[in-house]
Amino acid sequence: MSTSLIRRLGPYLASRFRKNQKVIITATHCYCYSTSTERVHMTESCVQRMKELEGSASSPDGKLLRLSVETGGCSGFQYVFNLDHTVNSDDRVFEKEGIKLAVDNISYDFVKGATVDYVEELIRSAFVVTENPSAVGGCSCKSSFMMK
């Protein structure tokens, strides 16, 4: 993401963060859980695939799915999914059936209210955002989108 975009969005995102976040601080970590009604949802298919990935993990730490938004893609912004073991201090964490989805604070405004799914097709199997109320259009592979 370009620094000029971050500078322009910084004050807006900071106010949204203060309004919609509850911060829980433990001895070693700071977790930010969303108290907003605009959650990022996970489908049953997404939860099931994450459980399969956790079951095959050799490390004792639980995996979480990380969703972030970057500039690029054929429509302007693109979704990026990663498996991670840590929650950062600026993450919003959404949980369903013990499975955690982390979204950094900047990416949250691009995906609030969205639904994350896991799809298996002939050409690929991947986590995708199937519904995003903040997007007005995107490419057919559902990996990039345009903002309203």
TrEMBL record:
<protein>
    <submittedName>
        <fullName>Putative FeS cluster insertion protein</fullName>
    </submittedName>
</protein>
<keyword id="KW-0479">Metal-binding</keyword>
<dbReference type="GO" id="GO:0005506">
    <property type="term" value="F:iron ion binding"/>
</dbReference>
<dbReference type="Pfam" id="PF01521">
    <property type="entry name" value="Fe-S_biosyn"/>
</dbReference>
<keyword id="KW-0496">Mitochondrion</keyword>
<dbReference type="InterPro" id="IPR016092">
    <property type="entry name" value="ATAP"/>
</dbReference>
<feature type="domain" description="Core">
    <location>
        <begin position="40"/>
        <end position="142"/>
    </location>
</feature>
<dbReference type="GO" id="GO:0016226">
    <property type="term" value="P:iron-sulfur cluster assembly"/>
</dbReference>
<keyword id="KW-0408">Iron</keyword>
<dbReference type="GO" id="GO:0051537">
    <property type="term" value="F:2 iron, 2 sulfur cluster binding"/>
</dbReference>
<dbReference type="InterPro" id="IPR035903">
    <property type="entry name" value="HesB-like_dom_sf"/>
</dbReference>
<dbReference type="InterPro" id="IPR000361">
    <property type="entry name" value="ATAP_core_dom"/>
</dbReference>
<dbReference type="GO" id="GO:0120510">
    <property type="term" value="C:mitochondrial [4Fe-4S] assembly complex"/>
</dbReference>
<dbReference type="GO" id="GO:0051539">
    <property type="term" value="F:4 iron, 4 sulfur cluster binding"/>
</dbReference>
<comment type="similarity">
    <text>Belongs to the HesB/IscA family.</text>
</comment>
